[in-house]
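Case study 2.
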Amino acid sequence: MASKLFSPKHLRVFSPRPQMLDEAFCYGPFNRSMQRRWKKPVDSARTRLEGRTRDHRLDKLMIQLKNLRLALDLHAVISQQRNGYASLQLLLRWRREIGAFLKKYPHIFEIYVHPVKRNHCCRITQKMADLVAEEDAVLRENESAVVQRLKKLLMMSTDGTLNMHALWLIRKELGLPDDYRSSMLPNHLSDFSLETPDTLTLITRDENLAVASVEEWRDKEYTEKWLAEYETKYAFPVNFPTGFKIEKGFREKLKNWQRLPYTKPYEKNDLHPITNAERLEKRIVGILHELLSSTVEKMLPLERLSHFRRPFLMEVNLRELLLKHPGIFYISTKGSKQTVLLRESYNKGCLVEPNPVYSVRRKMLELILAGCRGIVQTENAISLVEEDSQGSSHGSQNHTCQVDNMNSMSQFESDSSVESFS
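Prediction:
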């Protein structure tokens, strides 16, 4: 009987559970009755960013723009080659998983077999080359609009100066050409000066430009909706994403915040410094709103905003401030980086008021969205046509080249299937 009771089968029943042992070891024999400490949930900008209400249309747009940026980077690499094309071996060395990306967008990249070297090469299609040339031409034609944007940014700064490196980082967003320092600034010496190589200074201040873009919306609300002046004088357009949960008391807080007076972006507050924290935050919201409104596509990478904190007196945590106003700004984490977008400027993933530069870039994005649609010939058909055009007199040589091309193509497909850009 005793042998049956203390057998391994029955001892397994009387063995203490691991959870009980862990609790005994954690609290010990003398502090077993102590109460466990309750951990307060962390409330930070990172947790609020992860738990925010997402805008799926804008997130999808950022993924598409990421693919367009990669296509433009490939265009820059290929255009630097001497003959206007690059071998796939070179591109795979530049980025190993690029093969699947090239085959995914045949409206932008053309893969063919070189007639002499008999290796697979890639070149930019005529459609994409024409759009790149059109964008450069539009940037040159809209020089006056770009000059006004620079003036407005310099007028918002505390001393009328901005760092040239900060402007270089957002040159694409502002619609500046890459060589704006040598091609555009010398034509406006009466407006700008480069006293030091890394600082752009505003010479003449144009008060006609000292009007924020939100003022047009305020005038429209005041005249068309017959709202009181105190309700629209300091208000901002608010557009919450679908599925946004409105908590109790949120509407009243938003209404009071919309009526709160603040110092507008182009007004100086040296004589009357702001001491109220809410008014200071609202002034920074106005500066960010005007900065995003000055860009071509009404968006900026979040990390680039840190370069304008000191000249615009935005000494706060910008990400926390942006997350506190989800009806005005939206932070998208898609596209390999965090991007701030102006919500009022977009409707169904498209800009409400397009400009010439945006229209050209939208045409480039449409080539990305087209994918493989409308493409009849594949690269295998192209290689077969080129092999047939060599003639029957080089039969043995063509057979050897065909075997080599099949081996290289199989190696290319195995390398390109590592990662798919979607």
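The chain has a mean pLDDT of 80.
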